[in-house]
Amino acid sequence: MRITVTENGPYIVAGDVPLVRVEILVNEAGESIAWREAEHLEPGPRYRLCRCGRSHTKPTCDGSHAASDFDGTEVAANQPFYEIAGCVEGPGLKLHDARELCAEARFCDRAGGLWNLVASCDDADVRALVEEEAALCPSGRYVVCDAETGEPHEPDFEPSIALVDDPAMGVSGPLWVRGGVPVIAEDGASYEVRNRVTLCRCGHSSNKPFCDGSHIKAGFTDA
User: Fold this and answer.
1) 5 or 148: which carries more pLDDT confidence?
2) I need a surface site. Which of 23, 154, 171, 212 has the fewest CB within 10 A?
C-alpha cells in the first residue's frame, strides 16, 4: 500500500487501500466530539484521488488539474514528527503538538482546550478527556505519550483513507490517511510513516501535501 504525490497532479493510491467517507459529529454546543463512518467506497486496487479540488468526479481525478494550471508544489518539511513538535507536560503524560499539521477538525477545543487540560490530567476524568481528544485528531498534530516511558498512546487503525466531511462547517475536509499507509513525495522521497496524517484535497493548503485547514476558508465541497 502506498500513496504517491504526483507533480501538480493527483494522488496515486496503490495496493487496494480501502476508501471510506466519514463525518465529524458535534454536540449541542457545536463542539466536535466523534467520528461517524458514513459510506464505504470501492475504487479498486489502484486509483487516483483529486488533489487540486477542481475535479468534476471527486473524490477521483478527472484531469482538471492540467486545465487549471494547478500548482501542487510540496512545501511541507519532510522531518520526523518529534523534531517539529512542541511538548506540554502534565502529571503522567506528555502532549506533543505539531501546530503546522492542524487540519482544523476542532476535537481539541472541548472543556477549555486540550493544551490546557494536560496540566490537570492527574484527575482521572480529565486524563481520559485528554487521551480522547488527542486520539480523535485526524492529522496526528497531537500525540499523547507516557511521561516515563515515552510510549505513544495511539488509536488502533487498519490501513485506509477516509474522505472527511464537516457538516457543522458546511465543507468537505482532507484525506485522512490511517494505519501507517506510506506517503511518497513526487521526488520519490518517503514522508515519515505515521498512524494518522491528513492530505490536502482542496488545493489551497500552504503546507502541501498536508492539510492546513484551508478548506474551511475556501468553502471546499466535494458534492
Assistant:
1) 5
2) 154
